[in-house]
């Protein structure tokens, strides 16, 4: 008798098995997930406790209150922005066209979309996050502007093209879920338009 395929069972929501005591990092990991799903407004002790399968009292072993947790979450998110800045800075030694292409690839990376979008929404209500986002935007602009000058554009044209690249990246982060993913051809054509003399 031939083996019969096993019918797939419907997925069930389960609370992940954890050790008896959670650490602050467990709470921060859960907070990042809530931030990505619903923004900073969705961050509530009851929601985090439910997600982690523990009582609210467990939260207070690690944080004085939700404001303290948000402060630590902000520090964590600024580290994410710093890591992104380091990736962009690593492109500075590439030839100008490759530098611009590398920045476009970073911006269009699906792994960055959710975090970048969440950070930008949070920046609307938190000055320290806004400063971090602005710093990264400034770095992207400076590298793009310098690359455009090296490609032979005058100051005004280099500025306009670097600004367009930056704003296109910000728009891409906010619109990707509604408009779909940019294809490699989309990026190639966009970069050709920006760098063509």
UniProtKB/TrEMBL annotation:
| A GO molecular-function descriptor | transcription cis-regulatory region binding
Note the superkingdom of the native organism: Bacteria
Where is the stretch described as Disordered? 1-22
Cite a single Pfam family from the UniProt record: TetR_N
Instruction: Cite the HTH tetR-type domain residue spans from the record.
Output: 28-65
Keyword line: DNA-binding, Transcription, Transcription regulation
Matches recorded under InterPro entries: Homeodomain-like_sf, HTH-type_TetR-like_transc_reg, HTH_TetR
Q: Which residues form a coiled coil?
A: none
Q: What is this protein called?
A: DNA-binding transcriptional regulator, AcrR family
The organism encoding this protein is Gordonia westfalica
Q: What is the lineage of its organism?
A: Bacteria, Bacillati, Actinomycetota, Actinomycetes, Mycobacteriales
């Amino acid at each position: 008798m031939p083996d019969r395929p096993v019918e797939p069972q419907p997925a069930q929501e389960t609370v992940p098995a954890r050790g008896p005591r959670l650490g602050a990092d467990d709470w921060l990991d859960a907070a990042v997930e809530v931030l990505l799903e619903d923004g900073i407004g969705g961050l509530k002790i009851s929601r985090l406790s439910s997600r982690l399968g523990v009582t609210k009292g467990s939260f207070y072993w690690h944080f004085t209150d939700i404001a303290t947790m948000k402060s630590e979450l902000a520090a964590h998110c600024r580290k994410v922005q710093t890591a992104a800045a380091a990736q962009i800075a690593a492109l500075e030694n590439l030839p100008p066209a490759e530098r611009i292409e590398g920045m476009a690839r970073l911006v269009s990376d699906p792994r960055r979309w959710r975090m970048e979008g969440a950070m930008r929404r949070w920046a609307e209500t938190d000055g320290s996050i806004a400063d971090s986002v602005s710093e990264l935007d400034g770095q992207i602009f400076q590298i793009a502007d310098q690359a455009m000058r090296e490609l032979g554009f005058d100051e005004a044209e280099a500025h306009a093209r670097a600004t367009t690249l930056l704003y296109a990246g910000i728009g891409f982060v906010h619109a990707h879920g509604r408009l779909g993913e940019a294809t490699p051809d989309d990026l190639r054509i966009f970069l050709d338009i920006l760098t063509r003399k």
